[in-house]
Amino acid sequence: MATSKERPEKTPVDVKRTKREWINEGAASLKAERFEIAGALFDVKENDIVAESVVKSRLKDFRGGGSK
To answer: What does pTM read for this prediction?
Structure first.
């Protein structure tokens, strides 16, 4: 009888990119327009590193889905 090897659970990786990279390359992966990412990250400096979870949260707020 063959035994299966246990595979470690994959933990979600929080991708980190600069503001410019999010606008140019990351918008498609978040199913957003470039202007939406730029608007959500308007107060972030161009070369600051931002985590994907932060971008998603700000994008949700920018689109009007945040809780206020």
So the answer is: 0.75
Contact 15, 51 (CB under 8 A): yes
Angle at the Cα of 51 from the Cα atoms of 39 and 53, rounded to 5 degrees: 80
pLDDT digit string (tens) for the chain, length 68 residues: 555 566 555 556 789 999 999 999 999 999 999 999 999 999 999 999 999 999 999 999 999 976 65
Name the residue among 52, 47, 56, 44 with its Cα closest to residue 20.
47
What are the backbone dihedrals phi and psi of residue 10, each rounded to the nearest 5 degrees, phi first?
Answer: -85, 125
Contact 2, 21 (CB under 8 A): no
Contact 43, 7 (CB under 8 A): no
DSSP state of 44: S
